[in-house]
Amino acid sequence: MDPIIKGFKFPATPSCPTPPKLDAWMLESLNRLVALLKEHTPVSRTSHHSKPWWTPHLTILCREYHKAARAAKKHDTPHMQEVAGTSRAGYFKAIKAREEQTLVLLPADHYPSEPLDG
Length: 118
Prior knowledge:
Helix content: 55-70%
Oligomer: single chain
Low-confidence stretches: none
Radius of gyration: 26 Å
Order of helices and strands: HHHH
Strand content: under 5%
Number of helices: 4
Number of strands: 0
Mean pLDDT: 84
């Protein structure tokens, strides 16, 4: 068994278990477990690939753009090509606007110049 888990001790159970005492015991047990997890779990770092400016709205536009592009490729009609082009233009215009809006707000050193090791 892992020494970290072996060293974990639950608090003593209440001698006369009443609902408030059980609640306090459970809360203390949970706090100890969470503290152990936080102590031994690595903290994630921001990847240089992450896009902090991405929004759920852009996800929907991306899905719709790709759906229109697949339909245009499958049916190959002028109307479908026009729909796909309009969808593409709207999607990339929204991305550019969101990037510009967010990059103005971010500090210059937000993105690392080199990829993170590890």
